Amino acid sequence: MHEISIAESILEIADEQARAQHARSIQLIKLRLGEFTTIVREALEFAFEIARQGTLAEHAVLEIERVPILVRCAVCDKATQPVAGICLICTVCGFPMEILSGEELQIEYIEVETEEEWSQWNRSQKEVPREQQSESLSRPTS
Amino acid sequence: MEPITEGSAARTTERISVQTNVLNANQQTAAENRQMFEDRNLLVINLMSAPGAGKTTLLEATIRSLEGRCRLAVIEGDLQTDLDAQRIQALGVRSHQITTGTVCHLDARMVARALAVFPVDELDLLVIENVGNLICPASFDLGESLRVVVCSVAEGAEKPRKYPVMFHKANVVLINKIDLAMASDVDLEELEANIRSINPNATVFKLSSRTGVGLSDWTDWLQHAVATRRANVMVGA
Ligand SMILES: [Zn+2]
């Protein structure tokens, strides 16, 4: 069950990003998961449900996009999607093939909930040039 | 997105682009480990297999064969016991046990921590015996120089097709227990072809650590790899 370690890593990354935006909670985590990985989707979803308890992502949806395996022959340049089993030897010319996609394990984006004033404050911070930011970094009072 | 009002506090949902590989943290630590090994011209192998493939017995036979030829040490990953580490120590080889508890693989951080108690400067070869498992360890780079997968004949010819990621990422595949091919009704050629279909670039050895058949092909190759890595010291010095 390495899916537990993976789920914890997902939450760690999402949490760091959410806190940087002063988010109250994480609503959604969008993950791209290649078919040529050792991650079992159901096991990951199960591990995520356990690992998210007590975090900013306590009620978050884990949205998983499956990325199919796509391979390309380095010699004859034919790109194919293997259907039956995984064979990385080109059926056309017999040379080894490289994997173009299917090894992804990537967080694309997260959706977070922020207080309106925070979100306005964040936006205003982005407009302030870097050198002036240090003076205005104190938290806004509500 | 429209702000959602709840009580008096206005809330809003925002999308934050992340674009981050989930295994980034592990890969960073693995890169640090790898740099440390390269700085010392230390060859490191990550030895993986399913439970029962004969990994520890093969390691014992390898150690006996390399005796006097190189200075080696072993990091043992195990869920609970230190039985394997004891077997290695019995051969007079320094070994360190990482007990993973419920975790089914070693990660780069565990190895980095173990390195702190290791005389890495005095070694030519470090073997990391991973937790017996063909799935989980495949995803975790430890910073090793070579990934070596042990696959026993008794597991059947289909094994590489069932665990393609592990076999695809291997640099070396050791087909072990070839003395059991007849008894297991397994065609060695078929097994090797299945490995090649997933990993055309792997170096494959067929051997039996019990009878010793084919063992020297592997250990001579390994000795050569260690010497080649060591030669970098001479060139660099
Ligand atoms: Zn081709």
Write a brief structural summary.
The complex is a heterodimer of chains A (142) and B (237). Chain A has helices spanning 3-20, 41-51, 116-127, 130-133, and strands at 25-34, 61-67, 70-73, 79-80, 97-101, 105-115.
Notes on the structure:
- The complex is a heterodimer of chains A (142) and B (237).
- Chain A is elongated and about 60 Å long.
- In chain A, the strands form two sheets. Chain A has a three-stranded mixed beta sheet.
- With 142 residues, chain A is an alpha+beta fold.
- Chain A has helices at residues 3-20, 41-51, 116-127, 130-133; strands at residues 25-34, 61-67, 70-73, 79-80, 97-101, 105-115.
- In chain A, α2 (41-51) links the parallel β1 (25-34) and β2 (61-67).
- In chain B, 38% of the residues lie in helices and 24% in strands.
- Residues 1-8 of chain B have low confidence and may be disordered.
- In chain B, the strands form two sheets. In chain B, strands 5-4-6-3-7-8-9 form a seven-stranded parallel beta sheet, with helices on both faces.
- In chain B, 43% of the residues are buried.
- In chain B, β1 and β2 form a beta hairpin.
- Chain B is α/β, with parallel strands linked by helices and 237 residues long.
- The interface between A and B is large, with 42 and 41 residues.
- β6 of chain A pairs antiparallel with β2 of chain B.
- Zinc ion is lined by residues 73, 75-76, 78, 90, 92-93, 95 of chain A.
